TrEMBL record:
It is found in: Cell membrane. InterPro entries: ABC_transporter_permease (IPR051393), MetI-like (IPR000515), MetI-like_sf (IPR035906). It comes from the Bacteria. It comes from Celeribacter arenosi. CDD domains: TM_PBP2. It is a multi-pass membrane protein. The chain crosses the membrane at residues 7-26, 62-83, 95-115, 145-170, 191-215, 254-275. The lineage of its organism: Bacteria, Pseudomonadati, Pseudomonadota, Alphaproteobacteria, Rhodobacterales. PROSITE patterns: ABC_TM1 (PS50928). Keywords: Cell membrane, Membrane, Transmembrane, Transmembrane helix, Transport. This is Sugar ABC transporter permease. Residues 58-272 form the ABC transmembrane type-1 domain. Its main location: membrane. Belongs to the binding-protein-dependent transport system permease family.
């Protein structure tokens, strides 16, 4: 009875929209007409075989996901290891590195779009003052550079989240094991490999899963910086689902893209979680 109000709200605003999107993916609806025409698998057939933008978005999402499970977690781990030491001003530094996480992605997009301005942006001015003006690309206008320019902004915003999780995991490392390793003559690298890293395995699993989910649904920062351009070169699956539904007014195809994205997410996360759990059980 105590859970009923929360479950009702969750069902209304999470479970039912999920079910409705799944049903809508088999229908043709423009968001205005009362009637929804049942078209079966037509929407899925169209996005898979007749929609070239879908595969561009799919490729970009794969690239983004691979980079997202490598760079932010690795940088976050190094920051956590550094800020776990007895440093002067350690607490303020932790707050500074975490601050971008709490900034709205659309605000981050606006800020970095200004820094990437090809005429008055921060990076343009720095390269010009250093005499390297010939190296200045069109950060967000070059289709070969734009996706990676956006990803740099994403790393700046998200690395603090990984750092905080790793800092929490480092607190669970048994200090007596580190002291024993020191007595045995182990250096810092050996202690990290054989004591710290094994103790961080549960945290690494959490960080990788959350990074994967976050990267697969990347939307705000891409929408705010390029809107999927230039020439769809930064289009993502989540953004393409939004575009199909809210701009092209084809809710059926937009829902089909969303269902495909959900399927990909589950296909990656569920097996990895099962494998990680079995691995932890074997270690224990």
């Amino acid at each position: 009875m105590l859970l009923a109000p929360a479950l009702a709200i969750y069902t209304l605003f999470a479970i039912w929209p999920l079910i409705d999107v799944f049903i809508l993916s088999f229908q043709d609806w423009n968001g205005i007409n009362e009637n929804r025409e049942w078209v079966g698998l037509k929407n899925y057939y169209h996005i898979l075989y007749n929609d070239p933008v879908f595969w561009v978005a799919f490729r970009n999402t794969v690239i983004w996901t691979v980079m997202s499970v490598v760079f932010p977690p690795v940088l976050g781990l190094f920051l956590a290891l550094g800020l776990n030491q007895n440093l002067i001003g350690r607490a303020p530094l932790r707050a500074i590195y975490y601050l971008p996480v709490i900034i709205a992605p659309i605000a981050v997009a606006t800020m970095w779009r200004w820094m990437y301005d090809p005429f008055f942006g921060l990076f343009t001015q720095l390269l010009t003052n250093a005499g390297l003006g010939y190296l200045i690309p069109d950060w967000l206008g070059d289709k070969d550079v734009a996706l990676y320019s956006i990803f740099v902004a994403y790393v700046w915003q998200s690395v603090g989240f990984s750092m905080v999780l790793f800092l929490a995991g480092l607190q669970s490392v048994d200090r007596s094991l580190i002291d024993a390793a020191h007595i045995d003559g182990a250096n810092r690298r050996k202690i990290f490999e054989h004591v710290t890293l094994p103790a961080l395995r549960p945290t690494i699993t959490i960080v990788l899963v959350l990074s994967t989910i976050s990267s697969l649904k990347a939307f705000d920062i891409v929408y705010g910086m390029t809107g999927g351009g230039p020439a769809q070169s930064t289009q993502m699956l989540a953004l393409w689902a939004f575009t199909q539904s809210m701009e092209i007014f084809n809710y059926g195809r937009g829902s089909a893209v969303s269902v495909v994205l959900l399927t990909i997410t589950l296909a990656i996360v569920v097996p990895y979680m099962s494998w990680s759990q079995r691995r932890e059980e074997d270690v224990q």
